[in-house]
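Supplementary material to the annual report.
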Amino acid sequence: MTGLILNDDDGDLALLRDSVAGFAQRHDGPATLRARRASGADLDRTSWAAMAEAGWLGLMLPEELGGAGLGYAEQSILCEALGQALVTEPLAQLSVLSGALIAAAEPGAERQRLADGLMSGAAIVAPAWQGADGGAGPIAARSTSNGITLSGRISYVSAAQSATDFLVLAAEEGQTLLLSVPANADGLTVAAHATLDGSQLATLSLDQVTVPTQAVLCRADAADAALEQAIAAARLAISAELVGIGTRAIEDTIAYTKDRVQFGRPIAGFQVVQHRLVDMWADAEFAAASVSHAVEMQAEGESLERDLAVLAAKARAGDAAVTITRRALHLYGAMGFTDDCDIGLYMKRAVALNATLGQPETLRLQFVARERAAA
Amino acid sequence: MSEQQDWNALSDDQFRAVFRSWVEANCPAHLRFMRKQRPVFDEVSEWYHKLADKGWLSPLWPQEYGGMGLDAAKHIVYVEEWARLGCPRIPDHGIGLTGPLLIQYGTQAQKDFFLPRILSGEHVWCQGYSEPNAGSDLASLRTSARRDGDDFIVNGQKIWTTLAHCANWILLLVRTSTDEAKRQKGITVLLVDMTTAGCTVRPIPNLRNEADFCEVFFDNVRVPAANVVGEIDQGWALAKAVLGHERIFLGAPSRPEYAIKRLERLAQDRGAFDDPGFVARYAKLRLDLYDLSAAFERFARVLRAGGVLGADVSVLKIFCSELYQRITEEMLTVAGEEARLWDDLHTGAGDVDAMNLYLDSRAPTIFGGSNEIQKGVLAKGVLGLPSSF
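Predicted assembly:
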């Protein structure tokens, strides 16, 4: 299986892939997922600390903030490799999305504190910006003599139980604000719900939570632009992870169908099974091509081209991973329906990621609307 | 023959500009974006000769044989611009099949005799491979060639022979031996003059009511043994070897690209973009095309880097042919009751040949190795699955 193909003249991407493979040997993805699911936790702190140690949490954070200052290519290769190994900690949210918001914030002590904590793993900085429909849902902000008072509900927050800080989207008189809110703030409550992929997703309720004005990271158009950029970055990271999931699911299914003998021959020898496997593989190839294209576009393309490429990549990779793992599960037969078999975990992770930050149809409609508006 | 230069020394963009400006000035306007996919030689001979005079008829032949000597990267540009500018397809079996085969495997005498006659248009070639009982299973072909002194006597029948009715030479796969256990052995490549006594051609009207393929019958047709290409009984390997990087073009996005523009024109005119159901279906098609281009580019890059395509390139052909079909199917949905009509549909922005494209799109899942054959190749050659039969 080929997966993402990106220019790697220096060999850095290959090294990154190798280091994820090494990591996965020490921190088995499926085992970690099962343990996390059983404990009701929303983050495996051991894995997370090791990822911080490996330098993966601040991959795209600019060097001025102490980050690695790397690009979409490195981030995508990392996420693809994590997807292959079924390492399911919420990197796209806690590192990529939060990192992009922090990078876009106005320089200051709070920004640097968040960046340092994010990279070292000492702080868990969870983005909190979605409404119940999944779109941006700023909560109410009101300036007072004590600072800024926030009230409202925020949905789909990753790692809320583990979080030390939230990056909260709010609005005051139509002006967007992006604020840092400590997880232990008075008036903030967390209601967590189990997710399909063995984690927890929370709804935050803020009731008159007051933060100082220094908690504002950016505002108005800059805040809107920062969020849009951060969403695109997270979508691309998730797309790459989905590519990894799809390619791994096919590899495992090929191995299984070559091994499984019925009617005196491996079931991979039956043409009807072969054509199914080829269809699955073809979907993975197209997903990899689409995501590779989107990664390149971020460096080369015009603004519209960049946005379109990400929408296409997330839609393609999501559809591919979901349908590949679904078909894989079928080819595993009854074995695929057991909790013991990892293929089911891949399928659930694919469904959850596919639903994150826009289902394929929504993204395709956005693509067409943007393209036609520009024509 | 005009002067040639080292086209590969230009950048792709430079070559694109040179090629485009000349084609725009020289490809006759009435031949651009022809409705017919496979015009016969006489319909496009003007364009054929212009290309020949310029020395641009055979992009891949080495310059010593009158070709352009393009590398794969420049050839992709050539094909892309050709499609973008709507140039008509010319009868190209001499350029794309017989020529390369002779350049690689032919005798000096064969090269000296045949290659100039392809370039001049004197010889128009067709490809005699498929038979009534040898389609996907080509190695089961039965047209026979029996040795008789310095000649072979050919008997049998070919079918689905594209443009045979406007060709005067046929590149024939014949069975010269049935002794071998392996069926691929015992097949020989023969160059046959179709004006020889005993050779008859019968066009077969296709779905679009055009005759672009034919049956070709051989009744004791006498062919000089000097017209064997390569070794006797070893023709199968030759027939397989000819297609190199050109396999990428079976998956080139140009046909679905053209079709989706026509779909957009029709949908705009009929108000379909106000229908959320249509928009959702259109969005799927549009993004399939977008990603096909990304996937095509992924393989094109391998060629640009001087690499060789693997069996995996078949994935483009499967996806591209099925997408083309789905786009034309959507056209008929948008056409509504009008889809009962044979003629082109009228819109404020020009006609849309919906039915023509719908019928045309039925072919690509069949030709060039049916999609099921391609899947078999991928299963074995890429996924490493055991043989299924």
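Chain A has a mean pLDDT of 97.
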